[in-house]
Amino acid sequence: MPTNFTVVPVEDDSSNNGASAAAASAAASAAAEESKPVSFDNIFQEAKSVDSIQELHPGDESQRETTPFLNSDDDGQISYDGKNMALFEEEMDSTPMVSSLLNKLANYTNLTQGVREHEEAEDGNRRAPVVIPQMGTFIGVYLPCLQNILGVILFLRLTWIVGAAGILGSFAIVSMCCICTFLTAISMSAIATNGVVPAGGSYYMISRSLGPEFGGAVGLCFYLGTTFAGSLYILGTIEILLIYIVPTATVFKDNTEDAKHNNMRVYGTCCLLLMALVVFVGVKYVNKLALVFLSCVILSIMATYAGAIKTLIEPPEFSVCLLGNRSLKNEMFEKCAKVEIIKNRTVPTKLWDIFCDGHYPNATCDEYFTLNNLTEIQAIPGLLSGVIKENLWSNYGPAREVIEKQNQPSVPAPTPKTDKEQNYVFSDIATFFTLLVGIYFPSVTGIMAGSNRSGDLRDAQRSIPVGTILAILTSSFIYISFVVLFGACIEGVVLRDKFGESIKRTPVIGVLAWPSPWVIVIGSFFSCCGAGLQSLTGAPRLLQAIARDGIIPFLQVFGHGKANGEPTWALLLTVGICEIGILIASLDDVAPILSMFFLMCYLFVNLACAVQTLLCTPNWRPRFKFYHWTLSFLGMSLSLSLMFICSWYYALVAVVIAGCIYKYIEYRGAVKEWGDGIRGLSLNAARYALIHLEEAPLHTKNWRPQLLVLCKLDSDLAVKHHRLLSFTSQLKAGKGLTIVCSVLEGTYMTHKEDAKTGEQNLKTAMAAEKMKGFSHVVVSSSLRDGFSIMIQSAGLGGMKHNAVLMAWPAGWKQAQDSSARKNFIETVRETTSAHQALLVAKNIDRFPDNQERLKEGTIDVWWIVHDGGLLMLLPFLLMQHKVWRKCRMRIFTVAQMDDNSIQMKKDLETFLYHLRLDAVVEVVEMHDSDISAFTYEKTLMMEQRSQMLKQMQLSRTEREREAQLIHDRNTASHSATNDKAAGSAPDRVHMTWTKDKLLNERNKQREGMAVKDMFNMKPEWESLSQSNVRRMHTAVKLNEVVVKNSHNSELVLLNMPGPPKNKKGDENYMEFLDVLTDGLERVLLVRGGGREVITIYS
Length: 1098
Fold this sequence. Notes:
The chain is an alpha/beta fold. It has 37 helices and 15 strands.
């Protein structure tokens, strides 16, 4: 049984009158407002202002992912009617109710390329919103794709391609290109049905699937392809105009190739400016003429089919005149004969005048003209003529070759270089298979037209795949059928006649068409005009979409336009690039350039689908199910192959352009997170690599310092020691793992924002030092625990740090508490226990930054004990960096009285030779000596300081008790020392870097002190710990030797002695290290991790 309940609004009394007054007020208001709807926003308004935990910090908003709403606009007030969801009241802002979510989804609209809003703002007045009827598959996808696919190449070059490549070769060309676009359409359908595709079409799909770098690179390539497509269509328009419609309108009258190209340039530039003006004035005129242009294409195709069928009944009355087997231009003559009989008189024809010097029968004629007869053949023999057998095979040839009919009798004769050779039909360019592929491919582009209109479709998820694939199948059928019909109906010499010079300057496909060639001429002219206008309309908006994404900084100016959003600046750039294609002035040269850019776009569409399919990301749920990653890879491979088949040098240029744009976006572009597949691919690759890294231990040859840098932040959360990061980058040179971490004291709930700020500051400092790595800030109850957590848990799997780098705690003597000293010593202990190397940089602020260049100097290594060879590896790594590159490496080692210094030096030089390290070897003899008074004084001061620090930390009662214990202990120690003084020997320090010497040192430590030394001691020294005295003696003597030899060196590397096992000696450990490194400018204390890091083997 459902339970009805009512939420009663309760308003807090601002004057704090008590709970009873508030309850009474609530009851009264409930009685008065019972019939009114209650707003959740008012119920908990006061509670939200009091509860600070629920407040959103400014930093949260920047880190949070964008809202899932497609059209999300921030409403000024959020009102939730009803009383049944009070339990979720406080989370309504971040987790909205399902009803409001569905309402926003239902009201989503997407304007195609911004065209519709440009039309509405064209008059400068804001029109009332008009409900635009949603288009179906046929009108919205099928016809636009068909209009973009069928175009200039079909009418101007397909017959020539069939004549040169033959029916079989043309069938192979058409099949390859159509299969490529078909496979791309399958991949595109999967991407387009995996969510809504806004304006931008293929650019949006690629960029959101492969990331901003690939998206920007391929988006610009697609833009360049669309722009050069405009050049192609304009050149096709001018070619039809000057060759077939108004051949007398040429500016340059010479019948040369240069004159033809100059005419194309002049008229093409004028046509481009006219089209740009139309596009600038209003896109609506282009859209209204689109149906007219499409009708022209359909009528031309129907006329061609009708003409092919008519050849079964009556072939067209077009003939070709052959001299021998050579095809002649028939513009200058009507009758294909040398002489004709008029009124019983033999009269030379116009052809006689062309090939001979006079109009008389005894005139001197061209030798080939004299030896060969004239033959008139049908240009269109028809389907039943059997000409298909002759046109089945290819007929490639070089440039400037006379077009000849195969199997036609001919008497060979040299063709003199005279004006008479202009009467033959020549091939203007060399023909071969790969060239024809590049010229033909633009005829199958345009499959993206449907995906660009997704916002105008009634059901885009269904219409885009069906309409695009049906358009490709239809156009493929048209192209293949035209290849067969052309080869079966038209004579071979006519097919190879690119401009129809042998049939009175009529397009070859127009000769076949019914009822008149002018159907093809007019239809192809308007088709090319419309396609050019569509390109000049779409390309600027594509560039505007890329510019507004902000991924390419230097393109941002092209994101602006007129007040109505018209991309004026983008249009100007498009016109400029389009003019480059027009200046090329050859349709055959522009087509391969266009093919490169479209093929690259198709390649990455297939790659995007394959990557998303293989990654199996949860968001990859396309409604189009008939796809597979193998089909996408096949389409990708075919696209790449066609690029290099068309033109290998154009392909390399396109790849270089895309690569340069990719690197530019990677280094200078805005950081975008679009959930792209490349990021998912990187994550999968990283996971795979991490899993396999963990399976086997790392070999010594692959060892490199993977650093965990313990960095301090000041009170403003800024990096305290920037030179520590500089030194890290110099040591790593961008290789291996680097984790920079810091610790904040407190709880995470209260210092969450500080942790984010600190981490961002670390990233900024790392970027300033050009340092690649990761940063992390941990909030812990104490610094000690935080650093311990980082040492234990930083890294993942096989990518864990093996060395810790930290700065020397410079102010440990002046600190009132001992936390700095304790944290440092515990860090040393933990790294040793974790078998990790430890690097401690003393005087870190004096280290060079990345801009300095050390002209000369040495890096001195003091090799006291062998702990894995890290001491010798570090200088080598440093000298790979430009800061330390000119420094020399010196290795010092210490010899005792019983060591052979000469042999030690030879052995060490041999060892370094096998290690392939260039270094100067020095052996320093350090003799045993008595403990000096200075050593005792330093030890006494150290112990007195330790006692003083202890006293400061004790309470009064504990202080008195501690003082009595110290007195009793000193008295007992004095008596025991006097009793043992007779049999003791002087304490000496044995220094060596071998294991045997270390055992001898331990045996000597068991000997007592000599009586004469004890009698010479001052009374204050009697209570000193002999272990501390020996340690201090070592530090003092070693420091003297190091300072004497390395005081001018740029960097000194020293073995770092470990802390005492007994924690009671921790107070003195720092003093020993301080004395050891006293007087040196830059010191790096190194403690190995217990494993070999350098080897002599390859």
